[in-house]
Amino acid sequence: xxxxxxxxxxxxxxxxxxxxxxxxxxxxxxxxxxxxxxxxxxxxxxxxxxxxxxxxxxxxxxxxxxxxxxxxxxxxxxxxxxxxxxxxxxxxxxxxxxxxxxxxxxxxxxxxxxxxxxxxxxxxxxxxxxxxxxxxxxxxxxxxxxxxxxxxxxxxxxxxxxxxxxxxxxxxxxxxxxxxxxxxxxxxxxxxxxxxxxxxxxxxxxxxxxxxxxxxxxxxxxxxxxxxxxxxxxxxxxxxxxxxxxxxxxxxxxxxxxxxxxxxxxxxxxxxxxxxxxxxxxxxxxxxxxxxxxxxxxxxxxxxxxxxxxxxxxxxxxxxxxxxxxxxxxxxxxxxxxxxxxxxxxxxxxxxxxxxxxxxxxxxxxxxxxxxxxxxxxxxxxxxxxxxxxxxxxxxxxxxxxxxxxxxxxxxxxxxxxxxxxxxxxxxxxxxxxxxxxxxxxxxxxxxxxxxxxxxxxxxxxxxxxxxxxxxxxxxxxxxxxxxxxxxxxxxxxxxxxxxxxxxxxxxxxxxxxxxxxxxxxxxxxxxxxxxxxxxxxxxxxxxxxxxxxxxxxxxxxxxxxxxxxxxxxxxxxxxxxxxxxxxxxxxxxxxxxxxxxxxxxxxxxxxxxxxxxxxxxxxxxxxxxxxxxxxxxxxxxxxxxxxxxxxxxxxxxxxxxxxxxxxxxxxxxxxxxxxxxxxxxxxxxxxxxxxxxxxxxxxxxxxxxxxxxxxxxxxxxxxxxxxxxxxxxxxxxxxxxxxxxxxxxxxxxxxxxxxxxxxxxxxxxxxxxxxxxxxxxxxxxxxxxxxxxxxxxxxxxxxxxxxxxxxxxxxxxxxxxxxxxxxxxxxxxxxxxxxxxxxxxxx
Length: 844
Known about the structure:
The chain has 844 residues and is of the alpha/beta class. It is globular.
């Protein structure tokens, strides 16, 4: 039998999926494949396009196996487009004039970004948000905008036209490039296709609390040159000055090639196909992905695109597969805010009922759409907290396991993955059922990576992975200690790898020792490890993109989107001159002043663009960052000790100052707090701290692994009667052992509880050097002490880092309209215009 040839026009995610599916099923090698990839990069993860911002490493988005290396039956032509089709001759002519014959042609040309015909839409500085090249252009324009704004003394603004899913991703990308992002949406709410009015209001409050400026219910009327580069006029009569404009107002099928070839098109565009994804007027031509109008409907999500690819692969091999319909469910995290929509989210089914729980104070919104008897789940919307998505979405069309309200109530009982029927679809992107996953587990798949490999679940958007983990746990499989699906190592093992290899970037770490592009679990862990093993600034180069919000801005974000500033005061000491400067800063910037429990002064209410100005005045007064935002040493609390107190037996203030100056800036799995008491009366509450030191007549007693908070734990005695030198040596060893071995966000108390051998083992390691690593731990701490640099000063000295701290307002002298305060009472308090959805740490 002679081999046939299929030409694939387009090499996006769906085109690549088709090639993989065909080659995996073609046991007889009946087809050879020619792939025309118009872009300069082979298939990459367009769903994760925004993750390119920060790393700017194209390899991180490349799909596995996208070069088909070692497969002689697949020819990939990079940078080659299909220019025309001769259907009668069954040939495709490429852009460079080559004529390629085909037995079957698969159109996978995808879609293009729709740009409304707004006057001025083609001016320099106007972009679309679609490809890696687009993002490179936006990055360069953003850098120019930030530089020009600093020179002119104005805010650096960018505009996104379109407030849908991609529009908000684009806005987040601009925010990551140092711009204040304005989102202009014609509809009365953000993400109108996914969320309803109630969910839209909560989403708006969440994203505005994070610094986005939203303009809903307005149209973009014209774009003209302006003082910042461009001026955008809106239909409500307002104007916005910005350095660039990004259009993200939807997509349209890229069907020009098909149109010119005379193929049937749907009324709203796209190659018209039947359920086999075959063109309705040419049996040799198929269409998949966003260019395919299956039964007249185009689908803009990757999951139905993958379904079309699988159908065509089956048809070419003699099968009878048909397009099964589309699951338009979506789950994503925008700027740290969870949003999910599934099933009949807008209650269009006749007789449908809505069960809604909206908590504006917490920034959450949940809605279930159920049948008229409240027994069958039809769909739902989750904003702010989408943790129930994995258990609810597979139940669409099925009888609910309980009262609908209880399923979305924080106090209600949630259905577990084990209660799902075997035919419930857990992974909608790849059509993987619970039964398939459980079957893989029964056949020996014992971790996430193996389940991904044999079922495909979790390999696209990853939204189903929490459910997959539940199924693993309920099956009795011993869970791996892997950090996440991208690293099979634990945090402690990754620490050792970084320390031994000298790796200094996340991209290198994941390339050599992990898989994929990383996630919101492994990226902050890597950031912490990199900071713990070197003295690079926390915002140094690629590390900046790994940080949580607090570390990204070196300040604690508060309820209304402003930040608090906490200068370091070792041992609670502060000179009169420094105290005067603090008061002047608070007065000049209108900040609320609060004495903290850690013997420091906290200044609340600073906007992002004010932070460097505030820091400069504090740094000039001889102060530095107190790192109240970091997973690091916070404070060393002290009583006045023997210097002043008649009961004191040791100089607790002097010891506290020495310890804070030694361990300041030490990045660790979680925050660290110290206390030093000058006698057994314990006025510094040392036994409620991670490291507590209590003075005795015979020296210092060292207590470890205590903490206050939700689950208070008393610190336990590690060693007693220590002189100053031995005390510091033991603390050095204890801290570095904790930094090396604890899990992410694990305080010292639960770390000790989980430590094999408990306190006895810890005492042996620290005091007796039972592992023979005492000198190594001390050397690591000595390196940290020698390399310490103040993070605030590091920003003030570096224009590149300063560019991250840009205004959230249209003009430098005007306050962000979403930031308001109530000064009518005895205390200044924030007025909550929105609730930030970031992982903001508690202030102390």
